[in-house]
Design a protein that fits this description.
Length: 253
């Protein structure tokens, strides 16, 4: 059995198609089909073909050495041609080149000369400047009087800013929460207009936001919890009036 037939057999035993094997090994499906047909010329050489065979054996979980031994029987490694190597070695003889002028030496000499001239000018320039400066007449120095400091106005201590007093809420928030069996409730304003009337059942809550007096009548005050502007309050009787400032007043009968 050839190496191509062996590759086909191990793939089929693993229950894989060529496309599935290609996806697992990252080897093109066309190249896998050629290898199973004993065409390894598309691998690029025995080195790459052996690497593909190892990758296939790892995916199908078989011994790669047996497949490599089968491959080596039909695809022996090529031996280097020593005679052609010796011919190439003998053909490489030293060649003589005609002498050329050394332009690097000439350019180096020119650069050295330019640097020497620059150094001479650098050390002689200060003396020329001093000689020219001595011939010029001195310039008069004009001084201006310093300005007198202006008097600063005295800094008066500022009185601390008094924090503003919190403004009285314009609206009163009344929250009634029922417990037990609840209660029948009537809520009116100062003009006797109804804001709420009805039974507040167990666990129910009624919220009233109103700017002005709020008159409350509770049928069973013990079953109602009263909150005024977020503060729990105990009303003095079943009938009470909440003023705009949040205070409770009992109406006269």
């Amino acid at each position: 059995m050839s190496i191509g037939s062996e590759l086909t057999a191990v793939r089929e035993r693993a229950g894989l198609t060529i496309e599935q094997l290609s996806s697992s090994t990252r080897i093109r499906s066309g190249l896998l089909a050629a290898m199973e047909a004993d065409d390894f010329s598309r691998c690029g050489g025995n080195f790459y073909a052996r690497g593909h065979i190892r990758a296939i054996a790892r995916v199908v979980k078989t011994d790669p050495e047996a497949l490599l031994a089968k491959f080596d029987e039909t695809h022996p490694a090529s031996q280097p041609d020593r005679t052609r190597r010796e011919e190439r070695a003998t053909s490489r003889r030293p060649t003589l080149h005609p002498a050329r002028p050394r332009w690097a030496v000439v350019l180096g000499a020119i650069l050295v000369g330019l640097m020497g001239w620059g150094m001479v000018r650098l050390f002689t320039l200060p003396s020329d400047v001093e000689a020219n400066a001595s011939k010029t007449s001195p310039t008069p120095v004009v001084t201006t009087p310093a300005p007198k400091p202006t008097a600063k106005a005295p800094i008066r201590p500022t009185s601390p800013v008094q924090p503003a007093k919190p403004a009285t809420p314009l609206r009163t928030k009344l929250v009634l929460t029922a417990r037990g069996d609840g209660s029948y409730i009537t809520i009116r304003n100062s003009k006797n207009l109804k804001l709420f009337q009805g039974v507040l059942g167990p666990g129910s809550t009624q919220t009233i936001n109103y700017a002005g007096e709020i008159r409350v009548t509770l049928e069973n005050g013990t079953n109602i919890t009263v909150f005024i502007n977020g503060t729990k309050t105990t009303p003095p009787s079943k009938r009470f009036t909440i003023l705009p400032a949040g205070k409770i007043a009992v109406p006269e009968d």
